[in-house]
Design brief:
Oligomer: single chain
Structural class: alpha+beta
Strand content: 15-25%
CATH topology of one domain: endopeptidase fold (from Nostoc punctiforme)
Helix content: 10-25%
Number of strands: 23
Number of helices: 14
Distance between the termini: 50 Å
CATH class of one domain: Alpha Beta
CATH architecture of one domain: Alpha-Beta Complex
Strand order of the largest sheet: 18-23-19-20-21-22
Amino acid sequence: MKKTIVRAVSTAAVLSAVYAGTAHASTYMVKKGDNLSHIASKNHTSVHTLMALNGLKSDFLQINQKLKLPDTKAKKATVTKTSSPAKTYTVQKGDSLIKIANKYHVSVGDLKLWNTLNRTIIYPGQVLKVTGTSGTTFTKEAVVKKPSPSSKTTTNTYVVTKGDSLSKIAIKYKLTVSDLKKLNQLKSDRIKVGQKLKVPGTAKTTTTTPAKNVTTYIVKAGDTLGKIAKQFGLNMADLKALNGLKSDFIYAGQRLKVTGKPPVAAKPPAQAAKPPVQTTKPQTPPANTTDYIVKSGDTLSGIAMKAGMTIGELKALNNMTSDRIYVGKKLKIKANSVSVPESTQPQPPASGNDVSTQIVNTAKSLIGIPYVWGGSTPSGFDCSGFIYHVANQAGIDIGRYSADGYYNRSYYVDKPKAGDLVFFENTYKNGISHVGFYIGNNQFIHADEARGITIASLSNSYFKEHFASFKRFY
């Protein structure tokens, strides 16, 4: 049963309820393996209440940390009926659900439930409810017990499938995560495929009419979901739903289902004169060029700036379709460059230490960039997109995979060095689910959902609990 602390906000019809005892909180000492969800469940309260009572801004805990627990005794309170609307918040650049949840002392699961979100992606300008619709409130602080979902007259059984999480199931059945855990007597957020859970009533189902005129589109280099959606007059959400996509990540050669047809340019009238013959010759690259050998630490934008060129001119001159470069690569630049390269002779390939240094330096240069689900560019990263970008910038030619994908493309190391991979398991889903780069001194750098690219310590109790292994790219 979830407990909620509320205050009076208006005067209306007043009901009186009498509770015995006085309000005072006991304390709890955090032990190894504890988390807020476990402690809240064990003490018959909610994560929200624990965070508010202890002034916590995140769910990270330290061993031997003392937590105040709410008193289970009720007290005299005057109950006031109100119908105030739910409070809202407009998403700002750099915001994430967990950051907003911490700001308003609510859980991510509650935010997703109040706003009917089935994922954590939000965008600037989006208006979110940050409280539930107000109901009974109190003129004095009081502890009110909500009815347990187990008191519902009927319950059904839900079988956990691949990709499920407690938050996702709670939203589907209009519950909070806390209530779902209480109904199933769960002490943690971990669930497994095939597990049977009690849920109230029947999930709301909608019947959809199959999309008409479905055709197949093959993704080309440079395509994005937004670009394809616009081309076929769709919105991104419909395009993702049509193809069962959970992120915005696509790749060249991928087949996507689309509806409708791309706009076709109108044909000229039959009597219209023939268009004039093209008399201009195609632009040819400048003849006066020299070679530049990419060195450790170089970026395409840095080389273009030194050569007095734009990135587009530099890519066109070298027939490049991406910004990816690697140590030892030979590039053509204008001969009258502002900064003439020291040597145009081929350099030996980077050593293992050079690659490690490049990984760490590149990773640190991205600190502060916000977290974006599915992101793999400096405009925003998720954990695996961060690994993909940094590794390729350091000269490691590897594709874009999930954390589990990189786990299967690396080998174990007992003594990690800077630049190695560090993996975590059972964070937001079962199995390998998070990855970062080890940078030495028991620290690692990763894409954090609340802080973006940041440095964290492996001594942190959360990361110690979920640590899986150190590994190194083949």
